[in-house]
Structure formats: structure tokens, C-alpha cells
Amino acid sequence: MRGGVELTDCPAQVSADFGGDTVADTADTRTPAQIEADIERRRAVLAETLDEIGVRVHPKTIMGDAKARVVSNVDHTLGRAYVRVNGVVSEVKGQFVDAEGSPRLERVVPVAVLLVGVVGLLAVGSRRRGGSARRRR
Matching Pfam families, A to Z (predicted)? Predict the structure, then answer.
């Protein structure tokens, strides 16, 4: 039907055309009490639907949904980062520890010497800068 509403879940077929002044009624055999009960039932359904819409469009609901999506995305990203970091740590550990869990001295010693050298250079450099700053005062 064009521009109208057709109610098909009623015991009798009722059709209405809201485009003009006429309403077509095809043998409605319901009693006034049945019609009133139908109207009340439809009002209750409509009120429930409007309440649901009100909850969905409420700013707190929208913000809560947005926060939940952000938290989910952050959790997902952090989970992936954790897995990646764990893989890198395992890879590095595999370079310095053999299958039995013993350290590979041929790899640990050169790295340790290198680290001690870098720390020593940083210490010497900071002393030089610290000493020249004291002399300027």
C-alpha cells in the first residue's frame, strides 16, 4: 500500500491510508474491549522501544561504549606488544644461553666487556664536564 500502514497481526484486516481523509475498514469483528487491549499492548511496546532508544542515545551510554572500545583496542595492542617483546627477549636470551640454560661465555664475555667500557667512558666524560663547570664558577 502506498503512503499507508497495514496492520496484519490483528484478527481482522485493518488498513489505513494517512495520505487523505479516508480510512478503509474491512470487516473488523473485534469488540471495543479487544481494540482497547490491542491499543494498550501497542502503547506498552512503543513505550519500551522508546525507553531502549533513550538509553542507547544517552550521552553516558555513548561514552561508556566508546570507552569500552578504546579499552578493548588498548588491551589488544598491549597484548600484541607483550607477545612481540616476549619474542624479542626470548631471541636475545637464546643468543646468550644454550639449550640447557647455561650461559654461552663466548658471547657473554665480549658483551660484558663492551658494557663496562661504555659505562667507563660515560663516567670519565661526566667527570670532565663536572670539573670544568666547577672551575667556571
Answer: DUF3618
For residue 136, give its domain range: 104-137
Distance CA 3, CA 19 (A): 6
**Is the pTM higher than 0.70?**
no
Separation in Å, CA 47 to CA 44, 66, 94? 5, 26, 65
Instruction: Give CA angle at 36 (33, 42), nearest 5°.
Output: 140
Alpha-carbon gap, residue 12 to 48, rounded angstroms: 25
125 located within any domain = yes
Residue ending a domain, among 37, 57, 77, is: 57
Q: What is the mean pLDDT of each run of 10 residues along the chain (137 residues)?
A: 47 51 67 95 97 93 95 95 94 86 87 92 85 55
4 contacts 17 by C-beta, under 8 angstroms: yes
